[in-house]
Amino acid sequence: MASDPTRWWQPALECSPEQALALERAAGQQQRFADIDALAARLLAAGLAGRPVATVVPGRGRHTPDTAKVTALTREEEVLCAHAFGVQEQQRLGAWYLPQKLSVKAGAVNLPYLLRERPGHALTLAADDTARLTAVEDWDAVLLWALLVPLFETLLQPIRLRAAGEIFPRTEQQRFWTAIEERYRLLGIDESALEAFRFGGGWHQLDRAGQQQARLRLLDTLAAADLVQLAARHRIQRLQGLMAGFAKKARTGTALARRVLTKELQPVVSAYFGGDWLAVLGYLQAPPHPDEEIITALPEPRLYVGMATQTAGMAAEAGIAEDEVHAMLAAFLGGGSSLSPVEERAAALRGWWAGFDQAHAGQSRGMPSLWGLVDQDLMSLNRTEQGYTPQLYRQRLPADVLERVGRLWETVTLARYPGSIVSNPRPHQTVAEALGPAAEFWHGVGLTAWFVCEGPYSRTTLDRVDRYYSKPLAALRAAECPVDTAFFRELQAAEQLLGPEEEITDSEDSTVETPYGQVTFTSSMSHGARREGFERVRDLITRHRRAWAEQYLGAFVEGRWRSELEEVAHQHHRFVAAKGRPPTLPQFARFATTAANHWTGGDLGALYTAIGEPTPSQQERPTRLLTEDGYDFARRVYQELGGKPVDHDTWMNSPEETQRQWQLSRLATESLRYLQLQEALGQPPTAKEFGAQRLTWPWPGEETEGWPILQRVLATLTRTSPPSATPHSPTNPPPPTEEGGTRRLLTKGANAAIRTEPTMVRITATGAPVDVSAVLLTRNGKVRSDHDLVFYNHPSHDGVSVGGDTVTADLGLIPDDIATIAVIVSIDLEAQPAAVFDQHTLWQADITQPSRTRLAFTPDPFSSGETVTIAVELYRHTTGWKARAVGQGYDTGLAGLATDYGIDVEA
Q: What is the pLDDT of residues 520-534, one digit of tens each?
């Protein structure tokens, strides 16, 4: 954009912060930031004085997120923050870019407090003090993300860099410290504070106490500064980045928000303009772009479900035959019926409930328990729990119900491979998921009554079921379908009327010949207890279950599909608001797959129709490899692998064999996912795509021996061709080092010269499945564009390719403006959502070249919840190349790494 002398900020692009603030003040723009600058300064003062600024409350379990709260605020400041940083307030001004999931580094703002109170462990405690928010709903998270964490991290970077150790070469360390000193100078901070920290300042000559004193001196120096002025200078530096981004995109005098607001600039707008792009334009004295659309509220979801019941009215209104309306609806819905896929499945769930209810109502003494009627449990093939009957639904549900479940839920979509609709090995499990808390509670309370009365044991008592099943009961209340509290009082009374406990014993007689004749010994073993009165409790539960179903079941099922579809529509509208375009099919699948699997058989196109949006592309329906119930197929795999059910004697006396059978059972159940991947990919998955490294392989050669065995078994059972062995696969490992080729082990931060020729970096990981990718970086450490990220969906670019666990870089073909190739190892969180790099999840990088260069690097175990690591870097050095062992981790996931490298993750 050409320089415009009428815009005050154009000269500020090249000014120092002090000069830029003077220009801002002269333009009358500084006053708008007075409250935010004062807030940042006061919280900074509180932190530097040794007060905790924020607190993180860890969530309980995977489904309860962490929470982060800013605690060092006055009541007036809380009111200000709720208005300036509130999620809904910012979204009403168009800030739909606000992240929905976020890792908030509360430890960054609490580091000064920790350094004063717990100096010996401050850095470790700060690293652990991170909130992983699965839903950003409160202003505290936005305040931390947008304003406070960037401020504190900038000021405390000397401490953090010294804590990281010397992982970079001397030249890069010098560059880092030069940049830090310049930043401190521009912020107006006394440079003497860096005397002990700076490169060559003698940091490593200090003992632990000396280093702690140096950190405290830095905090004291910062606290003595004019903190309002310091906060303003930090602000204007961030706003200079916003100015530069706007100038770059404003070729016609102005620019669209979505073109300017990169991941790096979005928090700047949230911090200083409340997410208001029009306020940014006012600050920059620029008009809105003609195509700019500020969405202040998302459209209300409109669902195209239930129209089949309205055909008579439609026909009368249009003056046409009702059959014609049905035909038009069928064409709109893309099927052979005017009944939508959602309605069809809702009706099937009500039919399922009738069969489920009858099974519980007809349960009586002498019958097997109903554990297994609802497919809610982990699949186990090697040993069956006492009282559990796998696939019991096949025996106890009516044939028409089984047929409808098998037909309507026979397919699903995998979120990672949404281009194909694949087999669903456990349709009854999907039904249980769709019914959610209703099936969980009513089935659970029925089983509790059985095991309390008929034994051998129960996980809870009848008078405690309201506490034991508190989560599904809370979900039913939230759905406005509560269970009558009188039910629990009646259960307590019914338990008092049960008969006394009677031991359940197994007796065995054995006869022994003695000189005095035969002697018979009877041995008895108690294994639990039972109580008379099951039928009375069963009838009580049946009466309340049927009363609940009569009053709520229809509304509950409708609420289930309506809430899931409306959430998909909401996410679609939010994506359009943030990006200015509808999502692609893979982007849509990220938030729509669960609803599609529950209500449209995995058909994303049908889900698009249900929310009234056009489908961007059609999914394929490959030939199904799984043509039978998943349990039946998994049992056949288990038998072919050599599995045998574990009897009581084996379980008691042969722990090694018991463990081996459990491992074979796990492989057999995982084979169902293998078939889904094969259908989605159109070919057998590789070991990496399958996640073979996260499984235990009970063969002497472990994965190397077991992987081809599993593949051959699956190829035989599905009558497909087994995959051929490929180089660098578990069946064909890389050749050993040749005579004369040396293998050098690198330590963290070490480097070694390599030749300008094709170079392979192979990652071997244990403990969790990983993805391997590469990033091409310029001399400023940033990508040129998003194409410089090379990964499985973009596997080759400018001489660098990624295949499976290996990055190959032909160093002779790398463009001149690329200075570094970073090899990235990240946890495959879709396959193992809770995994992190730690002492159990490790990787090794092996670097090889045709000239027999052999380098290897294994980092020490990570300890701060990292899910992404920079393994090694290949970088230019004088006229050649070097390899460096990095081992730097990110607990903020790919988003944190992408921010550092300038990558747009969504792109």
A: 766 656 667 889 999
- Residues 6 or more apart in contact with residue 319 via CB below 8 angstroms: none
Write the DSSP string, 878-889. Answer: TTEEEEEEEEEE
More confident residue, 174 or 564: 564
CB contact at 8 A, 421 and 602: yes
The DSSP letter of residue 203 is: G
CA-to-CA dists, residue 867 to 685, 827, 835, angstroms: 23, 5, 7
Distance CA 411, CA 603 (A): 8
Q: In angstroms, rounded to a whole number, what is the distance separating the alpha carbons of residues 612 and 515? A: 90
- 92: helix, strand or coil: helix
* CA–CA dist 610, 81 (Å, integer): 39
* 732 bridge partner residues: 729
Please provide residue 55's backbone torsions phi and psi, each rounded to the nearest 5 degrees. Answer: -135, 145
pLDDT of amino acid 306: 66
**DSSP states of 354-420:** HHHHHHHHT--TTSPP-BTSS--S---SS---TTB-TTTHHHHS-HHHHHHHHHHTSEEEETTEEEE
For residue 636, name the pLDDT band (cuts at 50, 70, 90).
very high
> CA-CA distances (angstroms) from residue 607 to 116, 414, 484, 511, 795?
55, 15, 35, 69, 30
Phi/psi-derived region of residue 865, left when phi > 0, alpha when psi is between -120 and 50, beta in every other case: left
Compute the distance between CA of residue 402 and CA of residue 408 in angstroms, rounded to an integer: 10
Separation CA 379–CA 670 (nearest Å): 10
Q: Please give the structure tokens belonging to residue 496.
A: 């008092």
Kindly state the tokens that stand for 707. 């992987």
- State how far the alpha carbon of 711 is from the alpha carbons of 246, 640, 705, 714, 716, in Å: 54, 11, 11, 5, 9
Burial profile 683-716: b = 16 or more Cβ within 10 angstroms, e = fewer: ebbbbbbbbbbbbebbbeeebbebbbbbbebbee
The answer to whether the CB of 501 falls within 8 A of the CB of 454 is no
The structure's pTM equals: 0.70
